[in-house]
Structure formats: C-alpha cells, structure tokens
Write a structure and sequence with these properties.
The protein is mostly helical. Helices cover 71% and strands 0% of the residues. It has 9 helices and no strands. Residues 17-77 form the HTH tetR-type domain.
C-alpha cells in the first residue's frame, strides 16, 4: 500500500462490513449529487443507517471517507480494465482491449461525475492530490506498465522506458474521454468517433514500439 493511501479499515463483523459498504455507496452518491462541501457525514449516516461515531471510527473524517470512496472506485476500475489473463494475450490484442475497456469506463456518467468532482474540489482540498496520484499509479499506471513489460519480455515490443510509455498511453486515452467528461459522460458508452480515435492511438503506439 502506498504511504499516501490509508489502509482499508474493514469492519470486524459481516454485518459491520455490510454497513461500511452501505456508507460508501451512499457517500459516493451524495458526493456526486451535491459535491463534497455540501455533503456531511451526518447526512450520509442518516441515509445509510448506523451511527456517526462508527463512521468516524471507520474513516476518520469526511476527507478520509472521500478517499475510501475513491479507493473503491479505482479498485473496481482496475478489475474491469485489467482482468486476469489479459496481460498474457498477444500485444496486438491486449492493448486494444485495455484501451477500449478504459475508454468505456472513463466516459460513463459516474466516472465523469467523479472527474468533475475532483477538478472542483482539488483546489480546496490540496491534500487529496497525493492519495489521488497514488491511486492512479496503483490501479491504472502500474498495471498498464506491467502489461507493456510483459509484451516486451515476449519480444513483442521494444521500449526504452516502459513507465513513461505507459504514462503517455494513459494520457492519450484520457484525452479521448475528455469531451465526454465535460458534458457529464455518455450513458450509451463511447461514440463511434471515440472508438475510432482510441484504435488510431493504439495503432500509432504499436507502430512506434513494435520491432
């Protein structure tokens, strides 16, 4: 676990863990609907059930609750974008699959909502910068870099700096999702133009790094 990310505090009982997950569900919806500043732990607990004292015990404060919500979102993102066995595919199949999975996730209204929330709150909550960067590194950048390194070990890619190549590719894909994020996401998924741009970016990446 990164030094910038608190350890996940699971409840000691099954019932308590279900309540913790309920708090995270309600908190996520409240932050998306009302913003961070306009949401209180007390309001979240009223909706989710339980006690305010338990919420503070689990998350520390409202900022800790937001970080826990983000941890859960990024964990879910990693599971959907990098499923087991994907790094073992030939790179010409693996990278388009990763790219389209990441694009599809990034243009959802939920992902767009979190993106806009973080843009809006980042200035007021500068301490979020480090845990957010750590989450991006842990859940997106590191798995993508490992996929590139796996392809390189198989002789399918020749990359002088896989870490920077992974960062460049991630930024390319984020750029394709940018328009969707500004307008609140796309409930129907990526447009045909989004997908065409995604495939073009991957083809250019492969032309650059394939031997």
């Amino acid at each position: 676990m990164s030094d910038f990310l608190p350890s996940e505090r699971r409840a000691p009982t099954q019932k308590g863990e279900a309540r913790r997950l309920r708090l995270l569900d309600v908190a996520a919806q409240a932050f998306l609907a009302h913003g961070y500043a306009a949401t209180s732990i007390q309001a979240i607990v009223r909706e989710a059930g339980g006690s305010v004292a338990t919420a503070y015990q689990l998350f520390g404060n409202k900022e800790g609750l937001l970080v826990a919500v983000l941890q859960r979102e990024f964990q879910s993102l990693e599971a959907s974008v990098f499923p087991e066995g994907l790094p073992d595919l030939p790179v010409a199949r693996m990278l388009p699959e990763i790219a389209e999975r990441l694009l599809a996730r990034n243009v959802t209204p939920r992902a767009a909502g979190f993106y806009r929330l973080l843009l809006g709150e980042g200035v007021r909550l500068p301490r979020l910068a480090e845990p957010l960067a750590a989450l991006v590194n842990q859940r997106i950048h590191a798995p993508l870099e490992q996929c590139l390194r796996s392809a390189q070990r198989r002789g399918e890619l020749v990359i002088d700096d896989p870490a920077r190549a992974a960062r460049m590719l991630r930024q390319l894909l984020n750029g394709i999702a940018h328009d969707a994020r500004i307008v609140g996401g796309r409930a129907d998924g990526p447009t045909a133009e989004d997908l065409a741009a995604c495939r073009y970016a991957i083809a250019a990446f492969l032309r650059t790094y394939q031997p």
